[in-house]
Amino acid sequence: MCAMSQSTEPSSLLYSQSTSLAMRTTIQGLRMKFPSVKNVTTVTLQNWIDGGPTVPDSGASAESSRKENTKKLIIIDTRPELEYSVSHIAESINVNFETEDMDRVKKLMLQDINYDSPDDSPGVRVVLYCSVGYRSSVLADKLQQATKPDPAYKHWHFFNLEGSLFKWANENRPMVDQQGLPTDKIHPFNSLWGKLVDKHRWKSTP
Q: The Rhodanese domain covers which part of the protein (predicted)?
């Protein structure tokens, strides 16, 4: 029994460390590929969802942190509907990253926070996620470009969720299925990228 335990634990630990290293490498690569897209950590997003304090940037004043906390929060899942139906962050809206209809996305965002126009709100945070962050960075970049010329969006801020839903799931953060019920399962995208999420969570159909 003892020998079996000793041989199993290092293997599990090695898998966990390998996954963590691969995730960090992926996050860094996406930051380089999308330099204009701001990122937010899973810890900070959880705090925003819970209504607690943000994790301020170095040098941020208490007043600026307080102002950040008054902003509305929109969460966008940029994966196809099948992946979204397996699991997603509660209250996130589903917008496929391939869409080019930014006017439709703007309307969906306003509906989500119950505003008629973007300048009705003093500030809005929009956090986008996918499996690891590529697709969400693509849509975040599109939204930044689409809203930049409009002064009504001056105080809107778009973020990619660092590590996206794979990192969120690996940290045992809450997700729901298509019925809105808690789940720990997640669509692996494919067998290659799925290596970045704990395999016992894999589920390819709702």
A: 69-177
Each domain of the chain, given as residue ranges in start order, spans 2-201
Q: Distance between CA atoms of 140 and 170, rounded to whole angstroms?
A: 23
Residues 21-49, mean pLDDT to the nearest whole number: 96
Please, which contacts does 108-112 make with residues 24 or more away whose CB atoms are closer than 8 Å?
A: 109/74, 109/76, 112/74
pLDDT digits (tens, 9 = 90+) for 60-76: 444 444 444 445 899 99
pLDDT at 64: 46
Give 2-201's CATH code, choosing from 2.30.30.240, 1.10.3720.10, 3.40.250.10, 3.10.50.40: 3.40.250.10
**Alpha-carbon span 131 to 146, nearest angstrom:** 24
The string of DSSP codes covering 115-140 is: -SSGGGSS-EEEEEE-SSSHHHHHHH
The pLDDT score that the predictor gives to residue 34 is 98
